Amino acid sequence: QGFAWLDQEGNLIRTREELTRDEALASFLSDLERNQRNWSEAKNRIKSQLRAAAAAAGGSAQAHEKAICNEGFDDLFKRGAIPEICEMARKYWREGLTGKGQRHDALYSIQHLLWFGDGSLGIPKLPGTRNDERRYQFVMDWLERNHNGYCNHINRGQWREIDQYVRRLCEWRGNHPAPIKRVPYMVTERLAEVLEGQTKKTGHLFTPADAERANIKREEWAREKIRAAVQLLASQENEPRLRLLMRLTGCHPRTLRR
Q: In 3D, which of 109, 108, 75 has the Cα closest to residue 90?
């Protein structure tokens, strides 16, 4: 259970908790480089070992099916999610407020995680403008159940101020200039090759409009990552310098400047 390193026979070598974050990342990346395997091969090997262990213990291998489900691996990497903020959100989601002055960090981080969801905690995935109201309702419900007496506004019955604050949090998009009128995509030779390749690959007829929607989606993800990184740095009283933003978001400097 949990993250750990195993030997070839499946015996525990060390658990994630025994290592610092940097040590764990370095070990993981080193192992990945040396021992690349595709998931199908790894999954089949795990299945066979679980069946053997169950048979030796007199149990049923079906009882272990959840342990080898793809879902955990599919959800490991989520575009746009900032791990530090998501981990903060999971802690607050489980424990609620545990002291004074935590409300902003708790609500901001939970609102961020709601864009990406977390099935293990029952947190739904509610990205984009269309889900502003649903994120607002989830955050308000969570706060009402989990403030634990540590929010002065709630203690004083100032729910109107809380309501306005959470709405601003869930609807904030940054101060962007008014949208300019878009012109249709020009079908360049490069774009034509990309659309043709995607059409052959998927069987779906891709058009310039599909390419435009894909670029808009990438831009939205970039804006959300940058927004979250700036607020994280602000909460830590750090200036949002370019190199820090590049490290937190993975965005190109040109994207950040734009």
A: 109
Do 13 and 5 form a contact (C-beta atoms < 8 A)? yes
Residue 246 in contact with residue 256, Cβ under 8 Å? yes
* 228 within 8 A of 244, measured Cβ to Cβ: no
Q: How far is CA 155 from CA 9, 53, 145, 187, in A?
A: 56, 54, 13, 60
pLDDT tens-digit map of 160-210: 889 988 988 888 754 434 444 445 556 677 777 777 777 777 776 767 777
Low-confidence stretches of the chain (pLDDT beneath 70): 1, 8, 33-40, 56-80, 173-187, 204, 206
Cα separations (Å) of 7 from 43, 73, 110, 177, 253? 16, 20, 37, 55, 41
- What is the rounded CA–CA span in Å between residue 255 and residue 233? 18
Residue 227 neighbours by CB distance under 10 Å: 16
**Nearest CA among 7, 28, 8 for reference residue 16:** 28
Contact in structure between 207 and 198 (CB atoms under 8 Å): no
- Looking at this protein, which amino acid is placed at residue 167? R
Residue 128 one-letter amino acid: G
Residue with tokens 């079906």: 62
Pairing assessment for the beta strands 12-15 and 4-6 based on DSSP bridges: antiparallel
Cα–Cα dist 244/168, whole Å: 26
Phi, psi of 14 (to 5 degrees): -160, 155
Q: pTM for the full model?
A: 0.42
Residue in the structure block whose two tokens are 């750990």:
4
DSSP-derived letter for residue 197 is H
For residue 12, the cross-strand partners are 6
The alpha carbon of 255 is separated from its chain's Cα centroid by a whole number of angstroms, namely 20
Interatomic CA distance for residues 28 and 245, integer angstroms: 24
